[in-house]
Design a protein that fits this description.
This protein has about 280 residues and is mostly helical. It contains 12 helices and no strands.
Length: about 280
């Protein structure tokens, strides 16, 4: 008994150490970025005093004309957000349509389609990026903003499909047929019955698509050419030439991190309220 209790104690200590190590590995880089975002050093390293000018520079760039690298960063940020928003909208619409179509298939065909849908997810990014580069080359496409947008839509759709399918499986299959019997057309039946009941899955898929797009580097690197830079590829480029670097990029990353935390907290609160209301109704 003593040996067992000693063994369990050792396991608990090891588990605690692994948990602490995991949190340190995950959050230490974020903490470093947070510190550097309020560091007055223009070199991006070495503490030189507290400042909020990097955050101010992102909001009022005209107030800092001496920051010659700032306009390039702002262009990269705007391009990043534009591609992320457009690819999210397109991927969410297409992914939802594909999910509805897959759900309507027979069980055997549905499994086959889900397997095909999962291939881009498990595929390494570098393989996906090189494959898309080859396809664009064969089609004589000039690498630009549009090839990046197509690439981001391509790898975002499977995440939307995976998010929507579980919601579709929970739906009563007779609801759609009942809406048709009550006078709805096929399109309005989908819009008035199916879409509202899978809205949470669509939202989750959209958030996943946006997250995958806004921080992508590998696929963007292979499909962007010289005309397009998102924040990750811009950072990769300027690190080769430190004089083109601006610590305002740290402030941008902190802002994105805080927005993400706020969204997660908001969604969790909404979900908890809905579960509480549903539980009270059942009582």
């Amino acid at each position: 008994m003593k040996k067992q209790s000693l063994f369990h104690s050792i396991l608990k200590v090891v588990g605690l150490l692994l948990t602490i190590s995991t949190f340190i590995i995950i959050y230490l880089p974020i903490l470093i970025i947070l510190i550097m975002s309020v560091n007055d050093s223009t070199r991006g390293y070495g503490w030189e005093g507290f400042t909020l000018k990097w955050y101010t520079a992102l909001i009022v760039p005209s107030a800092y004309p001496e920051m010659t690298a700032l306009p390039n960063l702002l262009n990269a940020i705007s391009d990043t957000l534009l591609v992320a928003i457009l690819s999210t909208i397109i991927a969410t619409v297409l992914g939802t349509i594909f999910a509805i179509g897959i759900n309507a298939l027979s069980r055997k065909n549905r499994i086959r389609m889900v397997v095909l849908n999962n291939i881009p997810i498990v595929n390494p990014d570098i393989v996906t990026g090189i494959s898309l580069l080859i396809v664009f080359s064969l089609l004589s496409f000039t690498l630009s903003f549009y090839t990046v947008l197509i690439a981001h839509v391509f790898f975002s759709i499977p995440y939307v499909v995976l998010s929507v399918l579980p919601k579709l499986k929970k739906l009563d299959p007779n609801m759609y047929e009942a809406s048709l019997d009550l006078g709805c057309s096929r399109a309005s039946g989908v819009g008035k019955v199916i879409i509202p009941n899978i809205a949470t899955g669509i939202l989750a898929g959209a958030l996943l698509a946006f997250t995958m797009s806004i921080d992508d580097f590998v696929i963007t690197y292979f499909t962007s050419g010289d005309e397009y830079l998102n924040v990750s590829t811009w950072l990769y480029t300027v690190l080769k030439h430190p004089r083109h670097f601006t610590p305002a990029v740290y402030a941008y990353n902190v802002i994105i991190f805080l927005i993400t935390i706020i969204i997660i907290i908001f969604i969790n609160n909404v979900r908890e309220r809905k579960e509480k209301i549903s539980h009270e109704k059942n009582i």
